[in-house]
Amino acid sequence: MTQDVQLNNVSPQINQGQIQGAVAAFALPADRGSLEIQLSSLANKNSIYAPSVLVLDEHMRPAAYYPSSYFAYQPPGVMSADRLEGTLKLTPALGQKQIYLLVYTTQQDLAKTTTLTNPAKAYAQGVGNAVPDIPDPIASHSTSGTLKLKVTAEQGASNIMIGMLQSAPATPPVVVGATAPAVAAPAPVVSAPAEPMLNDTEAYFNNGIKQAVKAGDIDKALKLMNEAEKLGSTTARETFIGSVKGKG
């Protein structure tokens, strides 16, 4: 599966805490074995989107975090442009149908730049000529850009387990390529199945989820979704995912 996403001023936006600008959400199959996910952020003239990625399991629990430093600069090739690129190797736990990726950028990254390879240097290297001594362009980090996602299903085990077996205790998300620990995910609460939710109550929670996502308060939206599902909602999760994708 390959997917291209344009992030611009009509994309879903989050301006909350350190997150700033356009975001992208992806739902990936979790019942086809291990996944190898290549995420590329393509340079556009002298700007580029510096992605960070939060991986969530089927129940929207944070499971892994990839900071922007994980996505290294790759020079242009014959069939590829300047880009920031990284490969995520994930193994969804059994019993899940989907896992989710939330791609965003941060205020800290927006203050940084990426040095690109001068096209004349890239051409000289490609044809085997002497590389000219000329300056490389500097790309500022932007709140918009172009993402390319390539997902390959594998049979072998990968390095990060996404989701938990029923008997496993809750664990904090794995942080890949960063020194700062991520916030621990709350332990799941096991409860008896709830009675179906009344339509007015369901509409109240769904509207709250949409408003929280619109305001950039993803934590509040997740809490509303979880509370609604405890009360018997069958549409809260779909509302949350649709809102993050900009379809809610």
Explain this structure:
This protein has 248 residues and is an alpha+beta fold. It has two domains: 152 residues, Sandwich (Jelly Rolls), CATH 2.60.120; 48 residues, no CATH class. Helix content is 21%, strand content 30%. The chain has five helices and 14 strands. Strands 1, 3, 7, 8, 12 and 13 form a six-stranded mixed sheet that branches. Strands 2-9-5-6-14 form a five-stranded mixed sheet, with no helix packed on it. Strand 5 and strand 6 form a beta hairpin. The longest helix has 16 residues. The two termini are 24 Å apart.
How many distinct domains? 2
Compute the CA-based radius of gyration. Answer: 20 Å
Do you know the CATH topology of the largest domain? Answer: Jelly Rolls
Strand content: 25-35%
Helix and strand string, N-terminal first? EEEEEEEEEHEHEEEEHHH
What is the CATH first-level class name of the largest domain? Mainly Beta
Assembly of the depicted chains = single chain
Summing up helix and strand content along with how strands pair, one would put the structural category as alpha+beta
Question: What's the shape?
Answer: elongated
Q: How many DSSP helices?
A: 5
Total number of beta strands: 14
Mean pLDDT: 83
How far is it from the N-terminal to the C-terminal residue, by CA?
A: 24 Å
Helix content: 10-25%
* Major sheet characteristics: 6 strands, mixed
CATH architectural type of the largest domain: Sandwich
Low-confidence parts, pLDDT < 50 over ≥5 residues? 178-193
GO cellular component, one term: periplasmic space
Protein name: Maltose regulon periplasmic protein
Pfam family, one: MalM
